[in-house]
Design brief:
- With about 725 residues, the chain is of the alpha+beta class.
- Among the domains are: about 210 residues, Rossmann fold, CATH 3.40.50.410; about 120 residues, Immunoglobulins (Immunoglobulin-like), CATH 2.60.40.10; about 80 residues, no CATH class.
- It is about 15% helix and about 30% strand.
- The strands form nine sheets. Strands 23, 24, 26, 28, 30, 31 and 33 form a seven-stranded mixed beta sheet that branches.
- Strand 11 and strand 12 form a beta hairpin.
- Helix 3 runs antiparallel to helix 4 and helix 3 runs parallel beside helix 9.
- It is elongated.
- The chain starts with a helix and ends with a strand.
């Protein structure tokens, strides 16, 4: 017989044990106990977590030890390279690549008030990213409001999918702080069956994420991909950063410290710690009544001379000076290699702005260019910061470079890579300084030549704007250009002409002579007239005649670099009577605008132009020669040609007795447009070869008299 009391006690014990197990399994870490460990509210930070959590530099200007661009008459001084602003922190391991993502349109953000970075409390950790716009000193960048960032999952070191949770996105405030408050980063003490106890991580503890930009504020654009690596081994990489190896409650993880830092040289993890965006490129000046203030920024790195292109760079730069003559413009010169200027002597110094037109100023500027030498790496950042520091901003800043940036203001030694490697931090730095230039209203045009062509245009776009020049488009609409060294001179001249509110038209005369296999330069003496409709004004407003160069040139001038409408240009060739008599006729016309062929005909040479256009037309005339000959026959009362001088003409129709010997003359004239060779006269009333002529060749318009004698039948 069973004991009911005993069964009740057994069931009660089981119930109590189950309750105890349940209680221990749900006790939070702050209240849990363990035989071997005292209760703790959260795990104590490791050494990595004990890194200093100092606030980033203030957004206001920090005094700079870098000289500004010199004024007229000054000799620019050069301080030593500044020390780095902080000791680099540990960087992440090399990250994997990801697939391309399309660019994003700028959006107008809601106003985000400046606020301190949120505290990491409870089970939360904070990841905060500093977002920057314009450089304000060598060591600080002004915060940029309105940039939206999102956390993506990590897929074995590569970028995964975007997280949809509200805590996984942030928008930067006016201080440039964009912070993610990540929940469930704690751990708890869990026991099972009273025996099996241990720490259990919450879902996001020590999880790694990727920070990716979703949108940019109005007037700014994101650079989704940048070119990193070396000149011979580079690639387009996603601009995104993987967070650090730790993510724990109560801790704040800052860009520049635990991630996005320069602790170890790595092309895709190195960063200044400040997220970059590109400021919109300003348009050129509204009015063209005054000349342009131009800054020419030249890459004098060693690779320029290594490629044998230093002479080409100098010639193209001097050609730009010549193209600005007569426009009341001025030009300043800036150089860069490891730093800017490349040196403090004439072979690399920066030169202040000088008016081009007065006296021999143009030759002075060109002699300064001729004195330049090369050597070292590539520092876009320092060069653009030098330009930004000028007291009187420029209208146009033209940057000519043959590669990618390998140095920055705070890294002018780059010992780890010998100045041959580009990572994200050098590009970020250059973007901040270029933004500072554009913030003053200067338009930046970046020109990549040589290796600057092969490496892609993303980096050039990052310091200028997103519009690449394409053949046939107006040069004033482009932000960056990629060209071979052999194209540089024409390109820079066109940039200067376009920036000074004009379109240039060149007519090249060719002639295809009768019987020639191919056209030749037409030489002097060919006349053209041209007209241009409003809003353009033609110069010179008259007929022009070719000289020894076989060309004539016109300009169409506008009052603004972006006229509301195009100007219709018509061209007409005016042949002289002599040219017409010689058989010349317009045969073919080919015109190209900005290198792109357009449709024109010999009967109607016309096209539309706007400021910045370059038009080149080739007009070919062909010589058409039609042969012609006339013969006038007369009879004379002399038995031989020797008696013609005193002989009387026998009028046509008069009767002459049969058997009378007379002499006939034949006046032969070349009435055509071409010489006649092998001329013979045959009279069907006389034996063959009876008619004798003094020669067998007649030029156009030339005559000769042939004769024959015989009996009248």
């Amino acid at each position: 017989m069973r004991n009911p009391q005993k069964n009740r006690l057994t069931r009660a014990g089981i119930t109590i044990a189950a309750v105890l197990i349940t209680v221990f399994s749900i006790v939070p870490a702050a209240q849990a106990t363990s035989p071997s460990e005292a209760p703790i509210p959260a795990e104590a930070p490791t050494s990595a977590q004990n890194l200093a959590q100092a606030e980033p530099p203030a957004t206001g200007d920090v005094p700079s030890n870098k000289d500004s661009a010199p004024t007229d008459g000054e000799t620019p001084a050069k301080d030593d390279a500044p020390a780095k602003s902080e000791t680099p922190a540990k960087s992440d391991a090399s990250e994997g690549k990801d697939s391309p993502e399309s660019g994003r349109r700028a959006t107008s953000p809601k106003s985000v008030a400046p606020q301190s970075v949120p505290s990491a409390s409870g089970d939360n950790a904070v990841i905060t990213v500093k977002v920057g716009g314009d450089r304000t000193s060598e060591t600080s960048v002004k915060g940029l409001q309105g940039v939206k960032l999102r956390l993506y999952s990590d897929r074995s070191g590569s970028i995964g999918s975007p997280l949809s949770e509200s805590w996984a996105s942030c928008t930067s405030d006016r201080d440039g702080d964009c912070s993610f408050t990540v929940p469930q980063t704690n751990r708890k003490w869990v026991c099972s069956l009273l025996v099996f106890c241990g720490w259990e991580n919450q879902a996001n503890r020590d999880k790694r994420f990727w920070v990716v930009q979703e949108s940019a504020p109005e007037g700014w654009s994101a650079n989704d991909r940048l070119i990193v690596g070396t000149s011979s081994n580079h690639s387009s990489e996603r601009y995104a950063f993987r967070t650090g190896t730790e993510l724990r409650n109560g801790q704040t993880y800052r860009s520049g410290d635990q991630f996005m830092n320069t602790g170890r040289r790595n092309i895709t993890t190195n960063s200044t710690g400040t997220w970059q965006n590109t400021r919109r490129n300003p348009a050129l000046q509204v009015s063209c009544s005054a000349g342009l203030r131009v800054a020419l920024v030249l890459d004098l790195s060693g690779s320029v001379s290594n490629s044998g292109a230093l002479g080409t760079l100098k010639d193209a730069s001097k050609g730009m000076v010549d193209a600005l003559k007569g426009t009341s413009s001025s030009m300043a010169l800036y150089t860069f290699s490891n730093d800017s200027p490349r040196s403090n002597t004439d072979d690399g110094r920066n030169w202040p702005s000088m008016s081009i037109d007065p006296g021999s100023n143009a030759e002075t500027i060109k002699s300064r260019i001729d004195a330049y030498a090369t050597g070292g790496g590539t520092n876009w950042d320092s060069a653009m910061w030098e330009v930004a520091n000028t007291a009187d901003p420029y209208d146009l800043v033209v940057v000519v470079t043959d590669g990618m940036p390998t140095y920055s203001i705070n890294n002018t030694s780059n010992a780890d890579s010998n100045g041959s490697t580009t990572s994200f931090d050098e590009i970020e730095s250059a973007v901040f300084s270029a933004n500072a230039v554009k913030a003053k209203g200067s338009r930046v045009m970046a020109v990549g030549v040589g290796e600057g062509v092969s490496s892609g245009g993303a980096n050039l776009a990052a310091i200028s704007g997103g519009t690449k020049y394409t053949t046939g488009e107006s040069i004033n609409d482009a932000d960056y250009f990629q060209a071979g060294w052999e194209e540089l001179a024409d390109l820079m001249a066109s940039m200067a002409k376009g920036a000074t509110c004009r379109a240039d038209i060149e007519i090249d005369k060719k002639t295809l002579a009768y019987g020639a296999a191919s056209p030749s330069p037409g030489g002097a003496g060919w006349t053209f007239s041209a007209t241009a409709s409003a809003p353009g004004t033609l110069a010179p407003a008259r007929q022009q005649t070719t000289g020894d160069t076989s060309t004539v040139d016109y300009q169409v001038k506008f009052s603004t670099p972006k006229p509301a409408s195009a100007s219709k240009v018509t061209i007409e060739e005016l042949l002289s009577d002599k040219q017409t008599a010689e058989g010349w006729k317009l045969d073919a016309v080919e015109c190209r605008i900005n290198g792109k062929k357009i449709s024109v005909t010999a009967d109607s040479i016309g096209f539309d132009v706007t400021a910045g256009d370059t038009v080149k037309c080739t007009v070919t005339n062909k010589q058409t020669l039609v042969p012609g000959i006339s013969i006038e026959k007369k009879a004379w009362d002399t038995p031989t040609a020797a008696g013609l001088d005193g002989a009387k003409e026998i009028p046509a129709g008069d009767s002459v007795p049969d058997g009378t010997t007379v002499t006939w003359t034949y006046l032969v004239t070349n009435t055509g447009k071409t010489p006649l060779d092998g001329i013979t006269v045959v009279d069907d009333r006389l034996p063959t070869s009876s008619v004798k002529c003094p020669k067998t060749r007649l030029n156009p318009g030339e005559s000769m008299t042939c004769s024959a004698s015989g009996a009248v039948k």
